[in-house]
Amino acid sequence: SRSSMNADGSEHYTINITCDASPKTVTGFCVTEFKRLVEERTDGKVTVYAYTDGAIGSDKEVMEHVRSGSIEMAAMNSGNQTTDIPAVNVFDMPCIFENAEVARAAWDEPAFRSLLNSKYEEAGLELLMLTDQGFRETSSNIPLQTIEDFKGLDIRTMTNDVHIQFWKALGANPTPMNRSEVFLALQQGLLDAQEDPYVSIELNNYAEVQDYICATNHQFHNITMIANKEFFDGLPQEYQELIRDVCEEILVSSRKMADEAAETSLQEMVNDGMEYVEPNQETHDWMTKVSEEKVWPIVREKAGNDIVDAMLEAAEKARE
After folding, report:
1. By C-alpha distance, which of 270, 275, 94, 232 is closest to 172?
2. Is this structure's pTM higher than 0.70?
3. Widest pairwise Cα distance in the chain
4. What is the pLDDT of residue 270?
5. Which of 59, 157, 231, 317 meets the CB 3.0–4.6 Å disulfide criterion with 80?
6. Beta strands per DSSP E along 182-268
7. Which of 47, 37, 43 has the alpha carbon at shortest distance from 129?
């Protein structure tokens, strides 16, 4: 609704922004912080309605709303954007980044970002921010330290072809399963393991049914902030710039929050009796090699060579 006017005669804008996550998560923080900063900096000349906890629907549904323009903005993991933007399959490439610093520097690299932004634009979207929830790690009842430990591991994955192929390539038995069924399956011994960022592992109380927390660092979990492009382009220039500035600021604070949350969650789980283990160097190198040979080609097919090459080049630059 853009019909009303501000007291100074300028047009009053309303932005609806949503996510399917709790305000306690990094995703939820991005949404609520966006509201706070935009309203504060426009002296209320722009009203932002922030909806968390899936109040407007699942990420899949919200993606449709933002593309059609019935909702202006959203924050979500790119997993639910692959149908509309095949290039975002690039984020499912496992074992590219050694640590968060390299991952973030790669994602910020101008050539990669410019190409990625253009892929969103083709779908009628503006990618305003690319932040993260840290690495996806593995909780397990088998300590994952050697190559052998992965063989025959019954692990829950998301319903994502690349994730499934990755675990298969490691010799595990991946089972896609709804989040709501995982706890019981672990409790009953139908599954040995599941994978998620530390924060999610802790929030779902898997410490009650899992013995080990394994730093597999196999995938860096993104959070995108998107806007309907037609809506964004229709805003006055000063508001577009203000929104970009706000997103730059949130990027910094959300990364800090992701790091702190991961550390706190890991500590909590160890306090709850889980044992922290890391795969040895040989295993780590093997995971990377298997990913490169068997999984990256699948991603190339889905995402396209241009974006895959751009990300690999960005990762190289980040290492330097």
Report:
1. 94
2. yes
3. 70
4. 97
5. 59
6. 193-197, 212-228
7. 37
